[in-house]
Request: fold
Amino acid sequence: MLILECKQGELQNGKMIVVKKFNFKQLTNPDVQKKLFMNEVFPLTSPKHPNIVRCVGYCSEKSNEVVKHNGIFVLAESQPEMLLCLEYLTMGSLDKHLKDESSGLDWRTCYKIIKGVCCGLHYLHEECRPQNNNAFIIHLDLKPANILLDENMVPKVADFSLSKLLCDKKTQTCPVEGTLGYMAPEYISEGKITTKADIYSLGVVIIEIITGSKADLSNPDIEHEEGIIMKIKEHVEKLCEKSREVRDKIELAEGNGMVATDKIETWLARADTIIFEGMAVCESKQIGLN
Reply:
């Protein structure tokens, strides 16, 4: 089990940082520990991007301590201490700013946040090459709580603890982890991961930013598979309805000449398609359970 402790710190030059300390409980395999730690480090140590939270530094070191073993004192190697230092972002996470319709944010700010998240996600999928020219990163836990904002409300994607580094575009599977409400149905039901999983989450985030509709499925009835499929299906149906509302609001803003929205339209169209694909997955899964 991985437990993260986050504390605020200050560098010698006076700049504030956030220090994440990785505590591994009931997880003694050093290879697994290293993999979980590097999941966070890899995306943050690649070439910098303005919409990915910046890594200031990291370390992983072991120390020796004297312990009593079979009645005698021996020198033993302790668990490694793994620390990740990140830039401090004054406005906190996006979820703190989402309260009601329009999220309490003006349209220009909404647009800036949505565009920034789209750019950060595009970087992870298409431009970030941490190991070779074919590698790319899938975040797998994109949600408002993992989008941080600086003093100018510029968004930065954060928390890569569940991310996967893949080397080809083929569909792969993995154990299902993430946040219900933001996970694509095919990922929930079968553990399938492609870049579509992140784009589905992006669509949910865009809808939440513009409409204020929370994607909170934190307490669903999941005692049986049928229960969770029904809950996810209801959620996706609402997303399909809300996506139309989002399009209306974008067209209205565009008609008023507030801001160019072509890039958002492109990403929303992709998210729309994938959300509707998610509906098909829910329906086919439900039929299979009947």
